[in-house]
Amino acid sequence: MDPAWLWPDFDETWILYEDDFLLGVDKPAGMPSQAADPDRPDDLVARLSAHLRARGGREPYLGVHQRLDKDSSGVIVMAKRREANASLAAQFEGRSVDKHYRVAVSGWRGQAKATLRDMVVPGEGGRMRVAHKGEVKDRRAQLAVTHVTLVTRSGDRAVLDVRLETGRTHQARVQLAHAGAPIAGDRLYGGPPAPRLLLHASEVGLIHPKTGEPLRITAPPPADFDLWLARGDLGPHVYDDRQTLDRTLARAILARHALGHSQGGESATTAFRLVNDAGDGLPGLVVDLFGDWLVAELHGDDAELFGDEARKGRVLDALGALGFEGVYLKVRPKQASTLVDTRKEDLAPALPVCGKAAPFEIDIVEDGIPYGVRLGDGLQTGIFLDQRSNRRRVREASSGSRICNLFAYTCSFSVAAARGGARRTVSVDAAAAALERGARNFERAGLASGEIHSFVAEDVFAWLAGARRRGEEFDLVILDPPSYSTTKKRRFVAKTDYVELAAEAMGIVARGGALFACVNHHGMSRARFRRILYDAARKARREVVQAKDMPPQSDFPAGLGAEPHLKAVWVRLD
């Protein structure tokens, strides 16, 4: 598929105002104001520059003095000429620009007009917070002044007009949360559920740098504001209206622009997550992209979600309309531990529900490394896309190292380590068929298996016991077990058996080596997982030098107030 079809650089309708000196655009939610990843620039300025080059044939000049959070939307004004830039910079730095925002909140008890005046200081995790009384003289404390006007109200929900007198980080978000009225959809400051962060830069007023006349650029809030005010969070009812479904799906797709354009070069990636459940405002729905095909997963056996065939049909129709070669469907019941046959036709049809079938096994590329996947062969495809950034970390840490990959499945971590220059890899899994696919992945990547890169079809616990008796040691042990598994020798449940497993794995980590431990279980918190790993270290009589949580990928956002399903910790041992 041509990425430009799904991810155009820029939409001309986003331009609100343009002359020879200034440009005003309506930034959509999900687009960063500045590049987070210089290797994959998908920010507003990069995409607008590409659009203007295509339109005018030369490199444009863009002077930017205003930013909006990635999850917010609204007016951003830029200078198109250097002679206009100085005036624009002076107005923004001098705080003479009149900036208005529309926000949707829950719990506003203030008057129709109010002024919030607080001292704010940096908090944890990228947050700001209102300073305590004893902190107001802290040199980090800054005065934040926000003027609030009630626009409309519906029960406990309200839409407010917010004018910022000062320009502090997350100013409106932290002050409104402190006032008991957090912005809907705000993950950082505890906002109520919403399809997105309902913060929109609705108006910017300034003096035109050439004419000297007042200029006001406005952008009405998106339809999400009125919908949330009227009904609150839609939850599963987002699937009951095709227009709302399409708008929510489009927002998720927009947020994957950088990945969508990662089709070539050393970092080429042709498989990633397109929709991640409630994290993208589409509860119970997961959509993965594999080259020219989509795989849709419906999660949960609750009839409230997809028991309605009309609702399911709308989802599949919306995905089919995106223009991919075909769409596969997989139905994943809540209790994955009770699954007996993951290839049952009612759970994972072998043929796509729309479009044409893919070959039995297709090649995808991740960070320039090829892997084989099967889209119509049961619930699993052959690669876990949420480990992409972790495979990159393993690759970068593997040069000259001995790597052991436990529960290796199709050996994607082992391939990444070998491509990173590992001098030895051992891949252990109870399923010989999975390891055979892993050996073919080595061949795809141009790597020779054998004595240097070996595969062991054995129960992991039994193999670990033997490895310890043999005195085997590894510089890095990768531990990524399924939440539930059963072999001829034993049954493994992550919630109860992980301490024992991690302790055994630590027993083969060389001095100064590391255990990279993962668990994909929504019922286990990050804090609990870290405690499990420290308990395992005590059981193994090893000292933890460092335990570092690995951040989730951008294409796997967690739902509001929820932790990501995948928890991954890099544990450096004595």
Provide the descriptors you would attach to this structure in a database record.
574 residues, alpha+beta, Pseudouridine synthase, Transcription Regulator spoIIAA, Rossmann fold, eleven-stranded mixed beta sheet, 15 helices, 29% strand
Query: Tell me, what is the CATH class of the largest domain?
Result: Alpha Beta
- Mean pLDDT across every amino acid position: 92
- So what's the overall shape? globular
Biggest sheet overview: 11 strands, mixed
The name of the CATH architecture of the largest domain is 2-Layer Sandwich
Question: What is the CATH H-level superfamily of the largest domain?
Answer: Pseudouridine synthase
Number of strands: 27
Strand content: 25-35%
C-alpha termini separation? 49 Å
Protein architecture, described:
- The protein is α+β, with helices and mostly antiparallel strands.
- The chain has 3 domains: 3-230, Pseudouridine synthase (2-Layer Sandwich); 238-362, 2-Layer Sandwich (Transcription Regulator spoIIAA); 384-573, Vaccinia Virus protein VP39 (Rossmann fold), CATH 3.40.50.150.
- It contains 15 helices and 27 strands.
- Strands 1, 2, 3, 4, 5, 6, 7, 8, 9, 10 and 11 form an 11-stranded mixed beta sheet that branches.
- The model is unreliable at 336-340 (pLDDT under 50).
